[in-house]
Amino acid sequence: TPLTSPPAANDKNSFAKMLDLMRENVNAMMATLIVCVAGVAFSVVYEQQGSTLMIFADEHINLHGLPTEFVAALNPALVLALTPAVTMVWERQAKTNSEPHQVTKIALGCGLLATSFAVLMFGALPVDSHASPVRVSVIWIVLNQIFLTAGELYTFPVALSYISKIAPEGLLSAIIGLWFGSYFFGNYFSGLLGATYPTFDTPSGFFAMLSALAGAMCVALLLARKPLRRRCPV
Prior knowledge:
mainly alpha
């Protein structure tokens, strides 16, 4: 019978090998870290659609008799509707060699997310307090969801594709795990941020803060894209 190493020793050796690979591929790990941080920030804002956005819709959107669940159904319906259009745009850009780099696309996704809540910020201006009986047009929430969904399509699949390309051999699974781990932190911090919604004097103020957070991430990625391309030319 051949001698085999104990499982604990094998696990230790595998972990040590993974750490060595990370040290040998610092540029790829830094790029992955930046994209994962962007994923956390994006998720913090994006996931408000399942919490504070539903509260706002229930209290201050004129849904014309439709249930609040109508708002929750907009995002998946828009994913189906917008995916072919976004793909077509990228294909046309690729044919003319004008398709943005993937980091630029992620930045644009954050910019679209910022726009979605900027739209809602202006739409919510007539609501002067959380207790206000004023209801605004459902068009505002539809526009919010269009921009939000477009931002989602420019961010989540593109980021996963990018880190898969830059992942060194032997680290692909670990790097993809880091990316999905960013969802965990994004959802967690989204709940903490959403808990501050009642502390804002108006819903508009809260949406302005969300827009600013996503916008700041957009600017940070645009500033980081050239250094990232130099370090990870994919």
